[in-house]
Design brief:
Helix content is 22%, strand content 27%. It has six helices and eight strands. Strand 1 and strand 2 form a beta hairpin. Helix 4 crosses helix 5. It binds a DNA duplex through helix 3, strand 3, strand 4 and helix 5.
DNA sequence: ATATCGATGCCCT
DNA sequence: GGGCATCGATATG
């Protein structure tokens, strides 16, 4: 596969990885979708490297290409990939445009509408069958990534749902996508 | 269309 | 005990 992504892709700053992942196809058989929304976290005050340093610090600080899964608000999982092997970094996958395995996604999610299957990090994780046991594994052991066939337009905005470092435009959205979470710009 | 709110677990003081 | 990188249901313009 000419456009397949390897571990080396993640050996750079989280901002570059987050931007580069937008437009890529994410596969976790039998499901697949186009990544339309990501967020970068590094050593900033909103990052788990800072706010959960004792537990998540090692994983986020000195690795790249590993899966990081955490529970939020007691009931939702969020799927991340670590980036930048020489410094803290991770990318949160926030939304997909569903492409394959929609029926499996529907049964996991318990909803029918395509637009509601993977729009938002908790929904995305549920639709793909993400589990906490994946955390710490090589991301590419559980998922496959392919670059987009053509360059994509990406727009940035502040990150969603955080209360610190809200001024940083570290959210990346595929321009014009109806499958991104949050407000339509 | 936006607003509010309850559910829930984990990591931290 | 407090604070979340959230979602879905409900209530109201």
């Amino acid at each position: 596969m000419a456009r397949g992504i390897t571990d080396r892709f993640f050996e750079r700053p989280a901002l570059e990885v987050a931007r580069g992942l937008v437009g890529c196809t994410l596969r976790h058989a039998p499901c697949a979708g186009r990544i339309v929304e990501t967020e970068a976290y590094a050593g900033d005050p909103a990052s788990h490297f800072v706010t959960r340093r004792p537990s998540a610090g090692a994983l986020l600080g000195t690795t790249s290409g590993l899966t990081y899964v955490y529970t939020i608000y007691g009931m939702h999982l969020c799927l991340n990939v670590t980036a930048d092997a020489t410094g803290p970094g991770a990318v949160l996958l926030r939304a997909l445009e569903p492409l394959e395995g929609l029926d499996v996604m529907r049964s996991r999610r318990g909803v029918e509408a395509v637009r509601d299957l993977c729009r938002g990090p908790g929904r995305l994780a549920q639709a793909l069958g993400v589990t906490r046991a994946m955390s710490g594994r090589r991301f590419l052991d559980d998922f496959a990534l392919e670059r987009p066939a053509r360059p994509v337009s990406v727009v940035t905005s502040p990150r969603i749902g955080i209360s610190h470092a809200t001024e940083l435009p570290w959210r990346f959205v595929l321009e014009g996508s109806r499958f991104a979470s949050g407000r339509v710009a």
